[in-house]
């Protein structure tokens, strides 16, 4: 169930009692529960010791709000890097996203992950992640952007069954056209934790946030001005291994979004049940 979809109408009046101005706003982001079905496919093929091709397909269909049906197709290439100074990887990928059955977004992305040799301790490791992406919206070109993020992850594994990853960074989101609010930048943070008490099941949780400040305030007519975007995503889940290839997973996610564009502000919650099958050769 996803509680972030739905629609509602708000009506109010402005002005004096003798000369009122009646305003009606349609808001498609007000909470309304809606069930959905989703399919996700991930493929990875290693060409040799260093090179890997990978792809993913994720499609989601809502029972009551077809306009929010979405699908994402991704194809990428990754190369492992290693020398006397450390290890890491570099990758590039391209993705297409549809919304309501129509092409919504095209993205080209590249990333570099580095793990210096001196930062690799028995239970603690430091690293550096750099990623840049160009996003194009065919029907909303004013929202085209170029985004670059630099972060420093810390990996801590106190035991063979427990792992924690924390990361802090800085993100710059440059508007390539007349996007409302202009350029945005600010810190990013994330924490991931996983624990596997037995071979058959594990629990995990994560939190990530991006706290961006817009170049200038923006608001559609009659709505409050805003200049910042604050997004927090909290995820928790439980997974049980059913067989060598199959597992069952329950995942809860809460999203809070405060956007530069007020009509894009929302709180969303989802509870998803996964059946996962892994194959290979």
Would you write up a description of this structure?
β11 and β12 form a beta hairpin. The protein has 2 domains: 34 residues, no CATH class; 235 residues, Beta Barrel (Porin). Strands 5, 6, 7, 8, 9, 10, 11, 12, 13, 14, 15, 16, 17 and 18 form a 14-stranded antiparallel β-sheet that branches. Strands 1-4 form a two-stranded antiparallel ribbon. With 281 residues, it is mostly beta strands. The two termini are 35 Å apart. The chain is built from no helices and 18 strands.
Strand content: over 45%
CATH topology of the largest domain: Porin
Compute the gyration radius: what is it?
A: 22 Å
Shape: globular
Q: Which structural traits does this protein have?
A:
two-stranded antiparallel ribbon, globular, mainly beta, 14-stranded antiparallel sheet, 18 strands, 281 residues, Porin
Short description:
The chain is mostly beta strands.
Write the layout of secondary structure elements.
Layout: E1 2-5, E2 8-15, E3 20-27, E4 32-34, E5 36-46, E6 51-62, E7 70-83, E8 86-99, E9 102-116, E10 124-126, E11 128-136, E12 145-159, E13 162-175, E14 184-195, E15 201-218, E16 226-241, E17 246-258, E18 266-277
Antiparallel strand pairs: 1-4, 2-3, 5-6, 6-7, 7-8, 8-9, 9-11, 10-12, 11-12, 12-13, 13-14, 14-15, 15-16, 16-17, 17-18
């Amino acid at each position: 169930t996803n509680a972030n979809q739905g629609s509602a109408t708000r009506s109010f009046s402005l002005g004096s009692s003798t000369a009122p101005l009646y305003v009606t706003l349609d808001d498609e982001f007000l909470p309304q529960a809606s069930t959905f079905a989703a399919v996700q496919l991930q493929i990875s093929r290693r060409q040799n010791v260093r090179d890997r091709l990978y792809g993913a397909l994720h499609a989601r269909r809502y029972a009551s709000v077809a306009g929010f049906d979405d699908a994402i197709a991704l194809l990428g290439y990754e190369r492992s890097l290693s020398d006397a100074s450390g290890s890491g990887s570099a990758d590039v990928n391209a993705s297409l996203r549809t919304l309501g059955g129509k092409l919504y977004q095209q993205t080209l992305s590249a990333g570099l992950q580095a793990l210096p040799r001196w930062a690799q301790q028995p239970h603690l490791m430091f690293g550096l992640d750099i990623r840049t992406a160009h996003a194009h919206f065919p029907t909303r070109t004013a929202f085209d952007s170029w985004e670059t993020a630099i972060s420093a992850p810390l990996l801590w594994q106190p035991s063979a069954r427990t792992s924690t990853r924390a990361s802090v960074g800085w993100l710059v989101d440059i508007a390539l056209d007349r996007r409302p609010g202009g350029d945005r930048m600010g810190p990013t943070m994330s924490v991931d934790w996983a624990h596997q008490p037995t071979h058959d099941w594990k629990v995990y949780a994560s939190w990530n946030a991006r706290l961006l400040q817009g170049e200038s305030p923006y608001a559609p007519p009659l709505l409050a001005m805003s200049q910042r975007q604050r997004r927090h995503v909290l995820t928790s889940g439980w997974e049980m291994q059913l067989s060598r290839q199959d597992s069952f997973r329950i995942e809860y996610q809460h999203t809070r979004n405060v956007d530069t564009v007020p009509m894009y502000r929302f709180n969303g919650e989802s509870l998803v049940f996964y059946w996962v099958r892994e194959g290979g050769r």
